[in-house]
Amino acid sequence: MNDDQLRRIESEREFHNARFTEEVRDAQGKYYASIKHGSLMFDRRVAELAKGADVLEYGCGSALQGIELARTARTMTGIDISDVAIADARALAEAQGVHNTHYQTMNAEDMTFAPNSFDLVFGRGIIHHLDLERCFASVQRVLKPGGRAVFWEPLGHNPVLNRYRSATPEARTPDEHPLLRSDFRLAERYFDVDTPRFYGLTTIASVPIRDTVWATPC
User: Fold this and answer.
1) Exposed, middle or buried, 28 (CB in 10 Å: 0-12/13-18/19+)?
2) Reduced to 3 DSSP states, what percent helix, strand and coil does the chain have, rounded to the nearest 5?
3) Residues 107, 75, 62, 210: is their CA dihedral positive or negative?
4) Which of these, 7, 54, 108, 200, has the minimum number of CB atoms within 10 Å of its CB?
């Protein structure tokens, strides 16, 4: 890697180590609540594909979802740039008595797994932190023939959210980039891309009533 890539990776590591030591993005919870219907659909799709499979959680964080998936997966592997998160994931797997898991600190753009290692690679809010060309090439390499990659990511075309992002730089790393149409075109060079599903264009308007009697409990 060149100096700029090394700087970016180290910046991401520092940010996410701080995040998993003491959460720095609590204020964003109200926005995630407004797209919970999409998040639940993502969870169901991943759980369906994980049954009996060799699974890689790409950017696993503390592995809250991965530990549950491990109960039906053949194997569950997780990587994250944050060694704090990986320590948490290992401790959780041990506490839950889940033994088909393997968690390690790794650069997601340059994974060291053998080619054709996984039936499923999935991630939540991870690839928009990465160099997408390196990310897609790395994911493609470790997927088995016929394997699936499923991601839940922010988009960069909502002007309201873009304005909010500009006003809250402390909540994110300087190099992250919500996905654009051009990023989907890049993905098509590496994968047969299914039709994406989009959430939040109108439901974001529910944020002001989140804590009122009109809101659906989360």
Assistant:
1) middle
2) 45, 15, 35
3) positive
4) 7
Angstrom distance (rounded) from CA 204 to CA 189: 32
Cα first-last separation, the chain: 42
Each domain of the chain, given as residue ranges in start order, spans: 3-209
pTM as predicted: 0.79
Q: Which tokens in the block code for residue 208? A: 């002001």
- In this structure, are residues 90 and 14 in contact, taking their beta carbons and an 8 Å threshold? no
| Strand order, beta sheet including 101-105 | 101-105, 75-80, 54-58, 118-124, 143-152
Q: Supply 130's token pair.
A: 């990465």
Write down the residue that tokens 């730089």 correspond to. 169
Total residue count of the chain as it appears in this document: 218
Q: Residue 106 contacts by C-beta under 8 Å, 6 or more apart in sequence?
A: 79, 80, 81, 112
CATH of domain 3-209: 3.40.50.150
Amino acid at site 34:
S
Rounded CA separation 105/160 (Å) = 35
